[in-house]
Amino acid sequence: MPKATKQSMFLSLDDAQLTLNVLLYGREGTGKTTSFAHAANHGRVLVINAEGGLKAGALRRQGINTKNIVTWPTPGTEITYESLDELYRQIQSDLIDDPNSWYLIALDSVTDILETLTRNVSDARIAKQRGFGTSINQYEAFETDRNDYGVMGKQFVDIVRKMRDLPCHFVMTALERRDTDEDTGLTTYGPAATPSIQGKLLGYVDLALYMRAADPEEGDGGKPFRALTRPTRRYRAKDRLNVLPRLLADPTFDRILAYAEEELTADTDPLQSTLSQVESEPTKKNQADKADDNKNTES
After folding, report:
1. CA spacing 20 to 30 A to 197: which of 69, 108, 175, 216?
2. Superfamily assignment of 16-298 in CATH?
3. Which residues fall within 8 angstroms of residue 281, CB to CB, at 6 or more apart?
4. Is the peptide bond before 73 cis (omega within 30 degrees of 0)?
């Protein structure tokens, strides 16, 4: 029997499978769910459907193969840390048996998952207190204390790290969170999560995109959905791959992947030209973004 070599313990980076970990955040109606749903045209997509925003008819009208989309939880199954961990183990087993069993796993959305886990932790704490004979009034039963957030945060981070490390694409969606610094008055935008979890989310992914829809009041009516891919002073964003244009037109997952695989570039992508007018128009939003970019570059 040939002896195992040290080299067999390692994998060349050039031979590693390209799997993307992506965070899509923004206001409601900015195309987050539709974006990752386009991956169903390439393989099976599992959606942890906490938000309940998937509509088969609407997706089919956009040319998405909804037969490849599977949702969880099923009726009668609650979203808990335990059920999410059980789901992870099932996905892991599926991928070991068949590496092509799942093309993409989507957590839709972070905002809803966090709220659900926090509520579960609070309910469990109150039930335990009552079990010890502690009197809980009707107001205290709905309170969430700091320890609840700590436990929830550990549960959530554990699930996200496990899902992220699976050998398939992984996408998370989140609503936007708006924060204003009391000292400087600067308003910033990031995924809707506690500051601690927000930082971890941005650190765990390759791409964090701030999603936008066309806004007629800003002069871009009729223009496509777009995503900011680079951070500014006001917007959290990230492109670890350094392949996406600063503002990406029609940021569907298949287009994001095409850029990652270098099948598309800003120069060869015909849809990027549709944003030229948006970029040049002197709207308040664009002026603020460009000012932020200039300050970010100077710093």
Report:
1. 69
2. P-loop containing nucleotide triphosphate hydrolases (3.40.50.300)
3. 218, 219, 220
4. yes
Q: How many residues does the chain have?
A: 299
What is the full DSSP assignment across the chain? Answer: -PPPPGGGG---GGGS----EEEEE-STTSSHHHHHHGGGGTS-EEEEESS----HHHHHTTT--GGGEEEESPTT----HHHHHHHHHHHHHHHHH-TTS-SEEEEE-HHHHHHHHHHHHHHHHHHHHHHTT----TTGGG---HHHHHHHHHHHHHHHHHHHTSSSEEEEEE-EEEEE-TTT--EEEEESS-HHHHHHHHHH-SEEEEEE---GGGT-TTPPPEEE-S--SSB--EETT--S-SEEES--HHHHHHHHTTS--TTT-GGGGGGHHHHHS--HHHHHHHHHHHHHHH-
pLDDT tens-digit profile of 49-98? 987 778 889 899 989 999 999 999 988 889 999 999 999 999 999 999 99
Decide which of 200 and 292 is more confident: 200
